[in-house]
Write a structure and sequence with these properties.
This protein is of the alpha/beta class. It has two domains: about 100 residues, Beta-Lactamase (2-Layer Sandwich); about 240 residues, P-loop containing nucleotide triphosphate hydrolases (Rossmann fold, 3-Layer(aba) Sandwich). It is about 35% helix and about 25% strand.
Length: about 350
């Protein structure tokens, strides 16, 4: 048993999402969205490095020594998997561990709109789950993949860095590929995927032009492609994909994206006030004919309006999702106000509205 396993077990027992180990600091946990210290001594670089190297594969230690950064997965049987990141900083070595549950929650358990589950039955196209780091993108995507695994008879191929949620073949055959362990890069794996008879391809993160280009190609050639992006809204996701390409290619990419896109789910996590834990607010964009036309014509700024008028199809804006949680008593008025777009709409729920400079 590694020395750090005791920290991981404590983290699991108290329900923390992340463990921070940093030279010159006490260990810290992210508990219900907030960073809290563990009653333990301050960590010294030499001691911490020894702890970290005990659980890291030899090749990952070598990469870290050469580059100062490394990601990998670590698992404690019957407890959980952990996504690990080592990095150097001013005071020495540091590490952050994100817990990945061994049991994948269902749409109902997460309290997500039922349209999210229906995305698993799409025959082809591009589905994107977006949001800032720590917003629960991987969990939502894993839930969709798990639903497909239980209801379809297909080949699911995941490409991740590192592997997070592990899906065991149920009705589908599931193959996990980890970048730098099983394949050289996301792009290499995506090129190979088209020769591996996949029905569903899950791309852990669409980071660059080549990965996005290959994902669009796969989505337009009869595959269901799912991936994540670090964007905060449906409209900014569409903009991000188009803007990553050179200007002379963007008209063609708008047409390709309009044909391929099926849905964008942008989400943010909130601390619950009615019970322990956190809850996700989701903005949902579905690629109706009206949305496809806006993308082709470059009228991305009108997508927000289309979401508002598309509630009958299952679309919803982020502000409407936040308001639903607020009125149901799940989140605090202050959190709702801080994360919403239309501040004026939410000021009425605050006992002491702030003097916002945007109102001057």
């Amino acid at each position: 048993m590694a020395f750090l396993d005791a920290f991981f077990k404590f983290m699991h027992d108290v329900g923390a999402s992340d463990l921070h180990l940093s030279s010159g600091n006490q260990p810290l946990l992210r508990l219900k969205g907030r960073i809290e210290k563990i009653k333990y001594k301050e960590l010294e670089t030499t001691e911490l490095k020894k702890m970290l190297y005990e659980i890291a594969p030899e090749e990952k230690v070598k990469i870290f020594e050469e580059t100062g950064d490394v990601d990998f997965g670590y698992e404690i049987p019957n407890i959980a998997r952990y996504r690990a990141n080592f990095f150097n900083q001013k005071w020495g070595v540091s590490a952050v561990f994100r817990e990945i549950p061994t049991t994948i929650p269902t749409v109902e358990q997460l309290g997500l709109p039922m349209v999210i589950g229906r995305l698993a039955s799409l025959p082809k196209g591009l589905v994107l789950v977006t949001g800032p780091t720590g917003s629960g993108k991987s969990t939502t995507l894993a839930t969709i993949i798990d639903h497909a695994n239980r209801t379809r008879y297909d080949h699911i191929l995941t490409i991740e860095d590192p592997i997070e949620f592990v899906h065991h073949s149920i009705r589908c055959v599931v193959n996990h590929r980890e970048v730098y362990t099983h394949t050289k890069s996301f792009t290499t794996a995506l090129r190979g995927a088209l020769r591996e008879d996949p029905d569903i391809i899950m791309v852990g993160e669409m980071r660059d032009l080549e990965t996005i280009s290959l994902a669009l190609e796969a989505a337009n050639t009869g595959h269901l492609v799912m991936g994540t992006l670090h964007t905060t809204s449906a409209a900014s996701t569409v903009d991000r994909i188009i803007d990553i390409f050179p200007a002379n290619e963007q008209p063609q990419i708008r047409a390709s994206l309009a044909d391929a896109l099926r849905a964008v789910v942008a989400q943010s996590l909130f601390r619950r006030v009615d019970q322990s834990g956190r809850v996700a607010a989701l903005e949902i964009l579905l690629a109706t004919p009206a949305v496809r036309n806006l993308i082709r014509e470059g009228k991305i700024h009108q997508i927000a309006t289309t979401i508002q008028t598309g509630r009958k199809f299952g679309m919803q804006s982020m502000d409407d999702a936040i308001l639903d949680h607020l009125l149901a008593g799940r989140i605090s008025p202050n959190d709702a106000y801080n994360h919403c777009l239309d501040k004026a709409k939410f000021r009425q729920y605050l006992t002491s509205p702030p003097e916002d400079f945007t109102d001057v």
